[in-house]
């Protein structure tokens, strides 16, 4: 029997998030009353998140979606995925959805830093957890297809020919960033070449930045959060995307990208969970595929950032971030072409 989660017909104003969160709590935690502590938390660069702590000690998280993010994310699929994964103990419990967000379980712990992510003990936990996630089977999907190509296609269709803010247009052209036509060409190039890779299609997180991994030192375990983009995709994309997120988002530093030695260690931990009988040659094949799929991650999030440049109300330099990802894309593409 499918689990029913309450949907609240209310909209939370981003400029008065505590008052909106209080209305959500009145519906799902009516016994709390008004004595609630609210704390605005960081939640990546897409949404706003507030922690709500009641007198009895329970904390509920209320996440408010960023402006126009419904253009990018299938919210029904997100809810379905969270319910499925929480039943498997791979995601926090979902308490309710509302018009522009959701309320869910608080998981104690801290998000990862690049140093923590490279700690062998924590890396082993993350790799094993991703291995578990990649074994998930979504009911009623017998022939899964990768999210990557239709989602990039969707993103490209949403990229404006011109930004509504003229200063952003001038800056973008001055930087010499790729035009929409060039991005279309790169998309075709990637789809043509990466589709040839015999890479497994598995259920992926697709956005495993370090801020989406919670480490609990007392229990010595990790939890993945924010399954907005979760869907079937190429195994190597999810891993490559996670490795690239070692560089961070606010102050991007690709010097933090994992070394080959670390990647081999991480993939070994991952395969011990995902495919215990994997051979050394299979590990090396996956290592090679991960390297190639870094291109897809750069293009994916670079195009995503252009859409955010047009629509997001969050104070973040999305345009600058897009340019960083595109620059890394072309640098990596040249390296791979030279190898070939």
TrEMBL record:
Endpoints of the signal sequence: none
Its EC number(s): 2.7.1.82
Keyword Kinase: yes
GO biological process, one term: phosphatidylethanolamine biosynthetic process
InterPro entries noted in UniProt: Kinase-like_dom_sf
PANTHER family in UniProt: CHOLINE/ETHANOALAMINE KINASE, ETHANOLAMINE KINASE
This protein's name: ethanolamine kinase
Species the sequence originates in: Tribolium castaneum
Gene: AUGUSTUS-3.0.2_04370
């Amino acid at each position: 029997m499918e689990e029913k989660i309450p949907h609240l017909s209310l909209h939370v104003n981003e400029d008065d998030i505590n008052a909106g969160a209080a209305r959500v709590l009145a519906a799902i935690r009516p016994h709390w009353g008004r004595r609630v502590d609210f704390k605005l938390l960081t939640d990546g660069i897409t949404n706003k998140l507030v922690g709500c702590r009641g007198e009895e000690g329970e904390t509920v998280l209320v996440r408010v979606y960023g402006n126009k993010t419904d253009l990018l994310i299938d919210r029904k699929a997100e809810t379905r995925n969270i319910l499925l994964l929480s039943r498997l103990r791979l995601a926090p419990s979902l308490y309710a959805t509302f018009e522009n967000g959701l309320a869910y379980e608080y998981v104690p712990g801290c998000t990862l830093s690049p140093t923590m992510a490279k700690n062998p003990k924590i890396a082993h936990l993350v790799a094993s957890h991703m291995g578990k996630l990649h074994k998930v089977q979504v009911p009623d999907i017998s022939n899964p297809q990768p999210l990557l190509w239709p989602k990039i296609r969707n993103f490209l269709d949403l990229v404006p020919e011109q930004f509504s803010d003229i200063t952003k247009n001038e800056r973008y052209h001055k930087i010499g960033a790729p035009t929409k036509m060039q991005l279309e060409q790169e998309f075709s190039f990637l789809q043509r070449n990466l589709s040839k890779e015999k890479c497994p299609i598995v259920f992926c997180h697709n956005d495993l930045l370090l801020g989406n991994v919670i480490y609990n030192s007392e229990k010595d375990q990790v939890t993945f959060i924010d399954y907005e983009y979760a869907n079937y995709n190429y195994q190597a994309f999810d891993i490559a995307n996670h490795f690239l997120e070692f560089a961070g988002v606010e102050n991007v530093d690709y010097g933090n990208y994992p070394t080959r030695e670390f990647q081999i260690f991480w993939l070994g931990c991952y395969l011990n969970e995902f495919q215990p009988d994997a051979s050394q040659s299979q590990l090396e094949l996956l290592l090679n595929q991960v390297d190639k799929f870094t291109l897809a991650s750069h293009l994916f999030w670079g195009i995503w950032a252009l859409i955010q440049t047009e629509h997001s109300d969050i104070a973040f330099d999305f345009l600058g971030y897009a340019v960083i990802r595109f620059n890394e894309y072309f640098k990596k593409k040249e390296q791979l072409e030279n190898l070939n």
